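Service request form, structural biology core

Requester: graduate student, group of Dr. S.
Request type: structure prediction, single chain
Budget code: on file
Notes: please return the result as structure tokens.

Sequence provided:
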Amino acid sequence: MPYDIFIGIALTFGAGILAQWAAWKLRLPAIVLLFTIGLIIGPGLGLLHPSESMGWVFRPLVSLLVAIVVFEGGMALDIRQLRDAGDGVSRLTMVALPINWILGSLAARYVAHLEWGTSLLFGAIIVVTGPTVILPLLRSAKLKPRLAAFLRWEAIVNDPLGAILAAVVLQLLILHVDVHTSVFFTDTLPDLLTATGLSVVAGIAPAYMIRTLFVRDLMPEILKTPALLSVALVLFSACNMEMEGAGLIAVTVFGMALTNLHIPGLAELRRTKESLVVLVVSVLFILLTADLQRGALAHLSIPIMALTLVVLFVVRPVGIFLATLGSDMTWRERVFVGWIAPRGIVAAAVAGAAGIRLHDSGYHSADLIMPAVFSVIAVTMLLHGFSLRPLARAMKLSFSSEPALALVGASSWSINLALTLKEQNIPVLLVDSRASALMPAARQKISVLRAELLSQHGQEALEERPADYLISTTADGIYNGMICGHLAPALGRERVFQISPGVSRLDLYHGLSRDARGKVLGEPAWNFTLFESLFDQGWRFTAQTSTEDTSSTFGKRENRLDLLFIRRKTGIFILSAEDLNPASPVAGDILISMVPPKAPEPSPVEQ
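Core staff response, request fulfilled:
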């Protein structure tokens, strides 16, 4: 392999992670940055042409990486999510797909003037909404659970179905098979149904085998993640040998079966694969975009752009409207889903290979497949990526954009802290497993959640009311540490805090390991007993808008406990003695402190 390929691969990995970090820091859709980087280093500067450099290895490698992404997406499909979203999901996956195929094909034929065969293939390719685009957007959008389920299920389920539809259409066009002939019904259709059925069975059977190995402790922990990935890749390759696209169905079903079998320890494995998928998606988007040829971009004519606009503003909205008539989806949900439909890796990968094969079969307009699909991918990623969160907020389909805080453990002083935050319009959620402890908070209109966060139900309930930060405030220091350790992978280790378990337990060698607990709220001496005793003495939490004077002294003032400050639309900054470089408030931030009762005013007689 030439030396410049190694440089290109290193550049791709580095640029991908840099783009992900920049997107997180700037609160931008990561996919848009990845797409832009690919355009710059590929057709822009000509630094990287993966298909030319890697030769025949490139397409199979892309296919295997796509399989990993789709498998991880399948693991996000929990049947229990269908309790509220089942009708809408079935409409979006079973009804909308053929409608969108027909409308997309008609648009390609009469707007871009493509041949009928090319139009049918284009329509089949664009029916999918890419999970590689949707899932990262959902992680940061704070959509309400039901709406998020619609988009998640549609993207993951339609991805393999769309790939199979495109493969079948391509095969029929290459063989010049008329759907009205007996060949279609005697050979093509039975083969399609057989391959699909075998793919479903092939996905379910290994899941039961994996469950047996994991539950009976026949698989060491270090091999569990490699075993899952290996089985997924073997399933994908084997089923694709039967029929192009069948492998995507198999790995989707495999991931979905694993999740719904509720295998112990799978949550930790899923987090490992999520991290891997972030890297895979970053590399895939840059490679596929960089592989675009300048000649293909030169085909971006006015008819192609017109076709893109029709797909966005006519085909998708009309298809969703027709498919969801009579469903239990609200008009807001139908409008939102009708607009949000970014295409991704599968569409790009299928278009690149299918266009070449169709052109070799004598379809002259097949050269326009790649630029047409590329145009749809680029425009949908930009428009939908940047509009998803603002549109959801405008249509009241998402939670507040203010940073949200979850307080675990209902006590007199934690309820007072929650009430103080609520009065400042900061989203706060008080969590406890005891109904009696939550009743005083509920009477004050504080949002409460009765759940055990160490249980699967509790964690799912918390996901439905997303929190950005967490403070565990119970009297049990070990339990607080367990809560923080359990939720740190989801919220971020620097965003989970607990009140001090005691100075002696914070010893780095003899005490609680930092990996087994959260960051300590405030000073090591600020334990539950201190907060409780101060509250009994009349201390209360208060909110104050920061000025230049209070900003410089916050966290250093005597006779008060400075806990945290909130910067609107930005974040919650919780003070901890463990921070080497603590943040400082600026003018306008909201300062939250626990202060002693005011001394009574002297009476006139005393004066």
